[in-house]
Amino acid sequence: MVAGVTLKEFEEQKKPSGFFPKLFENVCNEGGDKLIPLIEELREDPVGLFKFCYTLPEYKNALNIKEFYPEKNIHESKIKKEYGTKAYQDKKDIDAIYLYTQALALESGYPKELEYKLYERKAKCLMMYKQMKDSEEAYKTALASLDHAKLDADKKTKIQKDLQRAIFFFQKSNYVFNKKDVDMYPRPALPKLDCNSKYPAMSKAVEFRYESGRGRYAIAKQDIRVGQYICVEKSIVSHMLPDYMGSNCTNCFRIMKNPLPCPDCTKVMFCSMRCRKEALSSYHRYECKVVDFLIASGMSIVCFMAYRTISQKPLDFFLKNKELFSNHDEISGSKDGTNQKKYLSDDYRNLYNLVTHHSERKTGDMFHRSMLAVMLLKCLKSQGYFGGNKVDFSSIPEDILTEDEQYIGTLLVHFLEVYQFNAHEIAQFEMVAKDKEEGAKSVFIGAGVYPTLAMFNHSCDPSVAERQERLKAQYWFDCRCIPCTENWPLMHEMNGDSLIFRCEECGEGVPFETSANVPRIKCSCGTPIPILLALKKIAETEDISERAHRKLLILDNLNQHKLFIVHILQL
């Protein structure tokens, strides 16, 4: 996690305020002592416990699922448009793009006769930032919107010719985006791996094993170089923190330069038409009208991910693949596991089989997660996930739980348990300014599950007692990694009184006291290390670091990156 913070600690620091914690407390108080034996009886029956929570009168009568979301607002839209025009006139094009996009996001009944102006100005701003294809599309939309403009014939004709001239410029110019086979929204190329035959997301330098009391863990089959990529994996499910829904693409998490709003809600934005189509054709149609309700509940990112796990797949997928979820095998995927097939990152079987520590859970924890799952299931049901029209629970005198709903609800409970221990943060690197590396930090913007990466055990490089205590609270295990067993020091506990030189023969670290007056020291393998030569190499690495910093100051990012890599490798 960011700055050594676990997912659980981040959620606790955030201190979410919402209606669900209070609702859960009220249900427990109303049920009183009579609830405890009833829940205890269902401890080993997840299906029964879910059904019990679904029909619990104290909960059923209090939980009111609503399409609670900010609707389009003509007044707010006009205000954003006016601010955008002011920014455009002041040549603040980035601000203008952002404000015009907000105006379009809020638009509902925005005067059709004025719509062309928004798109024309947006097109001009985009052209200034070399976003040619987006600019061309905005000009085309402006031309189409001109049909609704209430202008006299001469003025409309003049504007029409201006827009057509701009579109003609794009069509006839010899720029690369006119080529049919060009990807309009290319994504960064991923590093290449010498892939493991069983774990395609992993380098063949690594394999996974299982050990009782330790679980699945990764081991190196061969030497791994500093800076070598060992895993390149796409998350099987991910979700953005609500705070970043307006600045980052909901689908791919990238920071947006030219955001596209959802056609219906005002909460989410997309970086491209491709991302918007992907979202609208899968998960967002079941999230659009309830995302603000879910945020208002105060639920954690883990709950959002559990909901997304279901919403991104059609109901038929789960009904046709029940065998994937029939047996929870916590050693599958390891060398000693029963599943010797390829371990694929997009396989829901591998997602389902990640560790849950279900047998170690307290009954109250199971009850709490089942209650959350009921709320999530009702949201899915309200949005028509189970077929037919959307469901208004206030108009249903008797809400019957169907077999399919019960099945999905039980899966939600399971995934809520899985994600507690297997979710990884998704972060973005933020700098104070383009020419400053000081103060730069990694910022937590969301979470995802990477089925291969999740089988790695945690390493406590910087600490022992404190870090172990935190990992025990979050992941429920006692760490036995080398830094823990050898009691490695913390960074702030280290001083400049001693140096550690790396032996070029065996790679081991050799300590040297700076107060010692000796020309050389000897490694345990017998190799002598000349002190003056070693100090000279340290000075050379510091010089490389300084050169890299100078490249950063002139925004030569490619060369500064190369120099920093050399600096790290030499260390």
Blueprint (SSEs and pairs):
Elements (H helix, E strand, L loop, with lengths): L6 H8 L4 H13 L3 H7 L4 H10 L1 H4 L13 H16 L3 H14 L8 H14 L3 H14 L7 H20 L33 E6 L3 E6 L16 E4 L19 E2 L7 E2 L2 H8 L10 H7 L3 H11 L3 H6 L27 H5 L10 H20 L20 H20 E8 L10 E9 L15 H11 L6 H4 L12 E5 L6 E5 L6 E3 L5 E3 H23 L3 H14 L1
Antiparallel strand pairs: 1-2, 3-7, 4-5, 6-7, 8-9, 10-11
Task: Write up what this structure looks like.
Residues 249-288 form the MYND-type domain. It comes from Lepeophtheirus salmonis (Salmon louse). By secondary structure, the protein is mainly alpha-helical. It folds into three domains: 18-63 and 233-425, no CATH class; 74-178, Tetratricopeptide repeat domain (Serine Threonine Protein Phosphatase 5, Tetratricopeptide repeat, Alpha Horseshoe), CATH 1.25.40; 496-570, no CATH class. It contains 21 helices and eleven strands. The strands form five sheets. A three-stranded antiparallel beta sheet has the order 3-7-6. The radius of gyration is 29 Å and the shape is flat. The protein starts with 6 loop residues before the first helix and ends with a helix.
